[in-house]
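Hey, sorry to bother you again with one of my protein questions. A protein chain has come my way and I'm curious about its shape. It would help a lot if you went through both lines with me. I owe you a coffee for this, so here goes:
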Amino acid sequence: REKLTTFYTALYHCCIHPSLNMDIDNQYRGRDNKLHTASGFTNYTVFSLWDTYRALHPLFTIIERKRTADFINTFLEQYKQSSRLPVWELSGNETDCMIGYHSVSVIADAMAKKIGGLDSALIYEAVKAAASYSGFGIPAYIKKGYLSADDEPESVSKTLEYAYDDWCISQIMKRLRKAEDFAVFTKRAQGYKNIFDPATGFMRPRKNGNWLSPFDPKEINNYYTEGNSWHYSFYAPQDVAGLITLHGGEIKFEEKLDSLFSTGNQTTGRTQDDVTGLIGQYAQGNEPSHHMAYLYNYVGKPYKTQDKVWEIMNTFYKNSPDGLIGNEDCGQMSAWYVFSALGFYPVCPGSADYVVGKPLFERATIYLEEGREFLISKAPAKGEAKHIHSLLLNTNQVFRSTVTNNQIISGGTLTFSFQPRNKPGDKFGIAKLDRPHSIINLAPVIPSPIIKSESKSFSTSQKVQIESLSSKSNGIYYTMDGSEPGKNSMHYKGDIIIDKTCTLKAKEFSGKDSSSVTEASFHKKPNTWKIELKSKYNKQYTAGGADGVIDGIYGDVNWRKGEWQGYQYQDFECIVDLNEPKEISFVSANFLQDTRSWIIFPTQLEVYGSSDNITFTLFETIKNTIDAKDYMAQTQTLKKEFAEQKVRFVKLIARNFGKLPEWHEGKGDGAFIFIDEIEIK
């Protein structure tokens, strides 16, 4: 009875959102803030699509097919009103509070499952508009095939989710017989290959052409959305076969999955309340992990999926006030349970296949529209019934570890036969044809090469190397004048020595195909100063190390790209060694304020000078005049000219704002100082 209560509570949660959003006369306020009248469809709101595209909307393609058409027609009306499909819509307003353009997933999934009543011409227009939107790094992603930390915050997660969404669009184009568009989006769907680091086996941020270092796969930071690299490194549902290949084959991929569940469950970096329900680094309390336990099926180890799904269902879902391990997220957390309790799950929405897990109940009936029923049951077992032996679909015994949407909505029976445990000679889900299939085998992409260097800036010269991520390379070509590389450009054969400021671009070729261009900028420092940091920066905000504040490279207001040093609970203090006594008359330091993110300008900047690095004289105190309540993200240079002073050492102290006040949502916590560049003249 406890399990039944938990299940029906979950099913109830699935039916709360999306919510009806029109009056009795069918009028509603649209995305353009004008009144509209719904005609031929019912208008809805609350589309938490980053969450719900994964399982809630696929569930509706079984139990709420008419409403699914209404949801999508609501999407299309919103597109007509605002030129955008919803991302995370609330009451006729786009919040943009999460990433991706996952309305295309809901549309592709509905089309794959033959939901009718949709305007295909308008769908064609709307999904292409979603994939070419001018914000959130999408133009850079289109150009490069991936996002780097230089382009956009949460660059790894956005690359992965944009690639999946583009696969969904490719499936729409295939059904609409748009061959050219199908080819374009199939290629874009492989963008995940550009951020897979074969040396570590993780999806890893790229910065200035290189892998971002240092790298900790357990660290929750600004390169991932509500998670870390463990939570995103198994996300390529549109091409699991390609992901397995990147890992080095099925055995390596299985080992990586095993490590996911067996490694320590502590995360590093910032605190993220959403990351809960941990088994190793698997986090059931947040959506990016939800498909992972089902991936064992793709390497012919369905019994491992069954064990993990059973553990998750029985550990993290309870009949109690705190019976969910994470945020409900408008039904997604419960939709995972509903599907898993029935015995299957939509690993890749946009495909009509569900991947088999392990049913919770002895018997469950899905009452379908048009009066049909689909009965799921367990055959009587002798002794322990731990692992699946076979399925009986209506009267046919099958060993496939998938069921299709059409098999379900057509009505009938699905009977699970169990055995005490898996054993040699088992057939269920073992043969290639009996496993789930997720593969992109058209228009393979060549990953963009890596440009390896010690840093973006250097004093005299720096060694640079270019590394291939492809197994089918015919060569890498590069330029150092900012032009596009071609086969007539310099052919990379070994180390490159850079001794001046330049932009290096590299491109890899294989036959007629080529990668996108990898670009790296190198900046010769305007000085040979040395710097000693007396304060300790937060390891998530390093600006590349101590020299990052005297390298002549200025950060912008997008601090999540990693160009700023961050200091919390302390003042910023440093000593700059000019190498020899010099006459100075100007000092400046660049700071950033983003009050919503705990980053507030220092109260003042103090400038000291010394000839011996022991006795310092205060030259100037520069006051900040911008209110901490000014919520606009902005930069400010605190600077001062003064009478010439001959010194070798310059000390700067920026005084921290201190504890956040009562009016701030983080009241009582410590403010950050963000500093980027110091100038001394």
The chain has four domains: 1-128, 238-244+269-443, 450-524, 530-680. The first helix runs from residue 2 to 14. Residues 48 and 88 are 5 Å apart (CA to CA).
